[in-house]
Amino acid sequence: MDAPEATGVAARATGRRPHVVIVGGGFGGLQAAKALRHAPVDVTVIDRINHHVFQPLLYWVATAGLSPADISYPIRGILRRQRNAEVQLGEVTGVDVAGQRVLVGERAVPYDYLILATGARHSYFGHADWEPVAPGLKSLADATMLRRRILTAFERAELECDPARRAALLTFVIVGAGPTGVELAGAIAELAHKALRHDFRHFDPATTRVLLVEAGPRILPAFSRHLSDQAQRGLEHLGVEVHTGKAVSAVDAEGVTIGGERVAAQTALWAAGVMASPAGRWLGVATDRAGRVPVNPDLSVPAHPAIFVIGDTAAVASGEQTLPGVAQVAMQAGHYVARAIARRTAGDTAPLPPFTYRDTGNLATVGRSFAVAQIWHLELSGWLAWLVWTGVHILYLIGYRNRFVVMFQWAWTYLTYQRGARLIVPPPSTDG
Amino acid sequence: MDAPEATGVAARATGRRPHVVIVGGGFGGLQAAKALRHAPVDVTVIDRINHHVFQPLLYWVATAGLSPADISYPIRGILRRQRNAEVQLGEVTGVDVAGQRVLVGERAVPYDYLILATGARHSYFGHADWEPVAPGLKSLADATMLRRRILTAFERAELECDPARRAALLTFVIVGAGPTGVELAGAIAELAHKALRHDFRHFDPATTRVLLVEAGPRILPAFSRHLSDQAQRGLEHLGVEVHTGKAVSAVDAEGVTIGGERVAAQTALWAAGVMASPAGRWLGVATDRAGRVPVNPDLSVPAHPAIFVIGDTAAVASGEQTLPGVAQVAMQAGHYVARAIARRTAGDTAPLPPFTYRDTGNLATVGRSFAVAQIWHLELSGWLAWLVWTGVHILYLIGYRNRFVVMFQWAWTYLTYQRGARLIVPPPSTDG
């Protein structure tokens, strides 16, 4: 516990305020930055994109119900009034641990304290070749690409004369039945069976097949068995074919092999596994199998007390388990780390009690007006759970404008089944 | 005048309804399709993108005030309930005039009547090398690219230590002072001086320079001199430097040469000239200097009475002049051509009176709450003209959802100066 105190002292001795660098403007990084607003430190948030994204609603963008801007907010705008904070756009390429500098391409940003909150990407369990044919949903770029693929499949089906090829175009396979997989499956089924029902002349969108595949014994394993059953029934009611206990052994551009059986499908989507960002590599520390950095009970990195890792990039032990990669864990960790730094910079050397996660519950929607919710000891399913889900998501969205626009669009979709963002935006060809 | 009647007769003789193919889902093509809804014909609309775009509001997307989906609507959705219409996604590559077929890559779509409504792109007056450094604003892809460039310039300025280079990053040159140039200049000035004013720590966004350059003697040449003066004063009030009577002689990645004088600017935008789509080449007919196809008074192509060209792709003589490339001309032409085809298919061989354009006026906005309007013999400027502009644009937007969302975002921007779509979306890297 020497380095940071020494650093803090050095900073104070020179009259310089300690510099806290936060890499990543997701839930964890932002929460840390905001919680430092009254601390006697200078904060720099570095992100490679200029906006915070509300990841839990990415599937709404992917299924054409919302626009990217509706679920995001410029990081710079969020911290506009926080005078001790600045924002830098840039892609971090490494950390010079000895020199206490974050490397951003050719720039180097010195730090006294470093918070790494860089999130996670998809993991294909060693099948890197599946990535181009079964993209995942972690960023807005992913979401608009998924939207393009889903809508393009219907457009191609309209022009396809061969019935087998048309059927393959109208088959969507979602691999992995956590909340993202379940929500995507429900939304695609509703898009096909409701929003698009009058739009085509050469096929009936009702013939669209949506398959949700899960290797484990049931969908939504983080929920109780009862809620998981309820959610499965909800999905089946929407026309989703749920396949549990079946592993995917092959994915290519023509189809997916599910439990040994080949399904011809032009569109496969990946919601099965994640791999942490390369923060462990930057620090030169060993990571767990999911690429996460094991951290001390106070979320600092062993042997690097001035460096903290939070969110999906950190492996935080909680009893026998590791805390899940959800927004609430990241936000609480961001808040905790900010408090720890504020204390240390104030010269308070008494260690903080270890970080503990207050579980705020689990929520997942199934289609337009059905959700499952597990909050403390309460279990809800159906329309009431959907209202809770709606309220919580509106509340956590950043910006009144976003809240209002998203509420309006949900009401619109609820009443009309229509989806307002059915754009196939071609990838920009040249951008000198 | 033989072919179409013969075709129509042939179609009727075989019991087949005549097939009208419309290429382009812009203002003209859509209006034609909708006006044919009660005609005894089958309509196919072909477009390379799946949505209609409300082009007059593209500058709002480029300046981060609206999302792409707010100003567009799926063509398929617009024609959902029109049972005699279908929509095909595809890029037209040519027309087999002799065989009466539209070529869409490897597909060929036969037609009895063909309406080409394929719009226009930018023209750089022979300086094709200016295009990558001074992009124009004709599509949503253009708009998101412009938005990316504008916002990225501010992000780079925040990291730039060299004052000269920072000044170049904060200098925006807009070439061409028609409505698009004027509206872009006003919106960029407001973005810099209002929306971003608290967002940066290492420079003052108020130092941003916005230059509007026009080779002609005044801005908005389609308006009266009085309104053009009013608009110029409005722009200057927002901090825009207006340079009229000055030609641009060089554009590169480092700056623009304006009236012989070099201005260091990292961002140049093109609003100066357009070139019609290659419809003339498809038909093998001579075009005018702007690439437009000269048409008969009934908008058919000389020697090809079953082929009509409308909108920005057509050169329609009106006295000594050619009709301007604006939405109203295209819409009225689409309606006229639909009526002409409906008459011919009904066996009515009496020629329609020539197409005449009812001028509905000109509108342009200057920033948040100032516009100029020239409607019949009425001239308006200021807040009232801005209300007219707002009303007209909301009215012509397609879809209640879009109208409501745009109205809300305008009200939001009006009250807070904030812009809700400040996303730098990186171009998708791979999309297998």
| Shape call of chain A | elongated
Number of strands of chain A: 27
CATH topology call of the domain at 3-48 and 90-122 and 274-345 in chain A = FAD/NAD(P)-binding domain
Given helix and strand content, the structural type of chain A is: alpha/beta
CATH superfamily heading of the domain at 3-48 and 90-122 and 274-345 in chain A: FAD/NAD(P)-binding domain
Q: What does the radius of gyration of chain A come to?
A: 23 Å
Biggest sheet strand line-up of chain A: 5-2-1-9-21-20
Query: Total helix count of chain A?
Result: 12
- Largest sheet properties of chain A: 6 strands, mixed
Largest interface: A-B, 60 and 60 residues
Please report the distance between the alpha carbons of the first and last residues of chain A. Answer: 49 Å
Average pLDDT reading of chain A: 92
